[in-house]
Amino acid sequence: MNKGKNILCIGAGYVGGPTMAVIAAKCPEYSVTVADIDENRIKAWNSEKLPIYEPGLSELVKKVRGKNLFFTTDIAKGIKDAGIIFVSVNTPTKTFGEGAGKAADLQYWEKTARAIVEHAEDSKIVIEKSTLPLRAAEAMHRILHSNTKGLDFDVISNPEFMAEGTAIDDMHNPDRVLIGGMESPSGKKAVKTIADIYAHWVPREKILLTNVWSSELSKLVANAMLAQRISSINSISALCEKTDADITEVAKAVGMDSRIGPKFLRTSVGFGGSCFKKDILNLVYLCEYYGLPEVAAYWEQVVKINDFQERRFVKNIVRNMFNTVAGKKIAVFGFAFKADTGDTRESPAIYITKMLLEERADLAIYDPEALDNAARDLKDVKGKFELVTDPYKCAKKSHAILILTEWDEFKKLDYGKIYESMEKPAFVFDGRNILNHRELFEIGFNVFPIGSTKMTHLK
Length: 459
Ligand code: NAD
Ligand code: UGA
Prior knowledge:
The protein is an alpha/beta fold. It contains 17 helices and 14 strands.
């Protein structure tokens, strides 16, 4: 067996599954195994209904599964057989002890290091694919070299930059692939091995080689700067609502400056997703740890503005619906943290629905892909809510519609028909600014966009 051509990925989640499917498809001479402790997840990866929804993923997996892509719970065998091990386990925010609420919880990641030490019979390249705090590779290196079998390991940082909903496209056409390695001869050789895998489809000039620490830090900084742009535009949306400026026009005017650029300036109810908040808080924790409180406070503000934007959205609803939503049916369109994914981790919808349930609103929730996850998220939440599989039923007899995810299908609904079925006055709070507000107003709705003047028929 040529172990150098055997890749194992530990962690079959949103990153492990799609990235390994692309590597398997692009590198037919490699055998790629994805292993996880979660039996149900592995069963789903081996079934017709994959555990995650991602455009293009299902077709890709069908093409390579059973040929050179395998899903298993046998982590020990996976480790023994592989020469290259990617680690893409979850690294959530710590909820206990030192650094709780900010630092990364590294227990899952450390367990994989220990499993590698336990089961490895020869030297291997170990790649950090998970997003980790600065200098985590050093800790990984130490744990791996605590083995008493005389084995050597090269640890490499290769953070993932794909976004959910576009994961397969992002993997196929990345802006860059970042590989951070050690300076030693074997470190350099390991970097070359990993770069050669990506070079099957990524142009060499897009494969960026750095030292390990730059690579680890760049991942946190990239997410922090993307989220910072959203918080910047969201903070200005609040000012627009007070001044009759229009956030869409402002974002366009600002983004046309080629030094600023147009991307990630879409105002919203707030950013969600499993990573932005956790990675910024991790950065904040690192800055505090290294004695840089001013830098920590600067980045923490990005998260604070996001919380402010979510709270502001709910306050706006309650205030404009005559200061009470108690007992009123409100239709929530969208629960996923963004369109084209069923993922609801840290979705603004979770916070907004919880706040509205505290106000005793009666919620009906519709999402084309995220209702199973929504059921899980709201399992222990008190209050009256139902999950509905049809948007028209969801809106029927409601007082208001909230747009919380930018699904395309929400733009195509028959709002005339929806308006007829609703209680009056009928409200739309467009938390993603995706609908035609003038048209809705003309139908009869009272329309509340984010970051521009409301349109109401109320005297
Ligand atoms: P995820 O929760 O979807 O998947 C992680 C998987 O690891 C789970 O299935 C879990 O069961 C498994 N796991 C945990 N401990 C294990 C162990 N000891 N052995 C085997 N399997 C184990 O997480 P994800 O979204 O794929 O994210 C993984 C990492 O990638 C995180 O660090 C995240 O910050 C980073 N990241 C995520 C994205 C994204 O879009 N989701 C993008 C870039 C980077
Ligand atoms: C983000 C980054 O874009 C990826 O590069 C990174 O790899 C990933 O985090 C990660 O580390 O997990 P993701 O969270 O999947 O990807 O999705 P984004 O498209 O970045 O959107 C994040 C949130 O910001 C969503 O809630 C989205 O609706 C919101 N958003 C995005 C806005 O509110 N406005 C925008 O202009 C853009």
